[in-house]
Amino acid sequence: MEADFRTAVLAHAPLAALVGERFTPTKRDQGGALSAIVYHRISGRRDTTQDGRSCLVESRMQFDFWSYSYDEVKAVVAAFIAATDGALGTTGGTNFKHIAIDSERDTWDAAEPGGGEQRVSLDLLIWHDEP
Fold it and tell me: To pair with 91 at 20 to 30 A between CA atoms, which of 8, 11, 104, 130?
């Protein structure tokens, strides 16, 4: 699911122009070029009905957006949110049914070389077919 979602949102040209291939799972290259996106799957809940499993999964994904300035990171977030609209449907082997923003947080990392980097974190709830 994670790789298919990455493929689906990077098909959105404005997002791809901002981050290129700097859209990685779990960590990013320290000191690497920005803007960048790092993603983590936080949880996955399999849906059930009275008849048993529905074959739907609600995955909570965290996306961390990094850039050198607040305006730059917010531009990446805006492009990503626009890209999620186009991610519904089937990409690879995953059928994406519903995508919703659960929360958004702004932070700043002063410990990074060069005086600090801006970060925004988004939690998405993504409903998709079970693999």
Answer: 104
